[in-house]
Design brief:
By secondary structure, the chain is α+β, with helices and mostly antiparallel strands. It has one domain. Helices cover 34% and strands 29% of the residues. It is built from four helices and eleven strands, in the order αβββαβββββββαβα. The strands form two sheets. The chain has an eight-stranded mixed beta sheet with strand order 6-5-11-1-2-3-10-9. A three-stranded antiparallel beta sheet has the order 4-7-8. The longest helix is centred in the C-terminal third of the chain and has 48 residues. The relative contact order is 0.17. The C terminus is likely disordered.
């Protein structure tokens, strides 16, 4: 997804779009798949470096829990899946599980509890709850690229590649130096954007259809009126 379209989505949803130099917009883009255990989502990071120029990064990640935690949830209500939305100033630089630097949750976020205990992600039927659940933004393996999510996410947002995550942390450090230790994370579900686009397109087509019907009805009435006028004129002449 190109940067312009992503910014347009944020504006359309009335989400915050940060425009101060090096102030990070961190946006997770959840893909179409409901199959867990794959790094098939993306985390987009963009920020202004001048009044007219943006820098833009895209990192492969997962925004969903792995198969292990779906089958073996930590809580009886089910495994947490972060709900689509914008979480203002909900993250800060800290230690993930006390082990290494990452973005850690500092304010409540909303999750969907997948209680089916199967190997399929359920975004629609779970119970939504809001609170502090340790839904962090971190990496998988400490080196290289990780192929499967497995135990690396029980609801966290997890980078596939360790080097990409280090690059992300450098961006976070600069943001921290300028604006303090608070970060906003926005999660967008690509499927909901697509559904909304279809609805808007359908509305547009429907509106155009009504306009067309009205136009042709008006033209038809105008033609009928002209025929009556011509007939009346002919009768008067005779």
């Amino acid at each position: 997804m190109i940067l312009g379209k992503l910014r347009a989505i944020l504006r359309h949803k009335r989400y915050e779009l940060y425009t101060r130099p090096y102030e990070l917009n961190i946006v997770g883009l959840r893909g179409n798949s409901t199959e867990p255990n794959k790094f098939d989502d993306e985390i987009h990071v963009f920020y202004k470096i001048s009044p007219i120029k943006w820098n833009y990064h895209v990192f492969k990640a997962t925004t969903d829990p792995g198969t292990f935690w779906l089958k073996n949830p930590m809580q009886q209500q089910g495994t947490a899946i972060l709900s689509e939305g914008q979480y203002l100033n909900s993250y800060q630089l800290g230690l993930h599980q006390g082990k290494y630097k990452a973005l850690v949750q500092r304010k409540p976020v909303t999750v969907i509890r997948d209680y089916d205990r199967n190997a399929k992600l359920d975004f629609l039927n779970g119970t939504k709850t809001t609170g502090l659940y340790g839904i962090n933004i971190h990496r998988a393996n400490k080196t290289g690229t990780t192929r499967t999510v497995d135990k690396y996410s029980a609801g966290c947002q997890v980078f596939e590649n360790a080097d990409a995550f280090q690059e992300f942390l450098k961006l976070c450090e600069r943001h921290y130096q300028l604006y303090g230790n608070k970060f906003t994370y926005t999660l967008i579900d690509f499927r909901s954007v697509k559904r909304e686009g279809i609805r808007r397109a359908a509305y547009g087509i429907g509106t155009l259809g009504l306009i067309a019907v009205g136009y042709f009805s008006f033209k038809s009435r105008d033609k009928i009126a002209q025929l009556f006028k011509r007939k009346e004129k002919t009768n008067n002449e005779n």
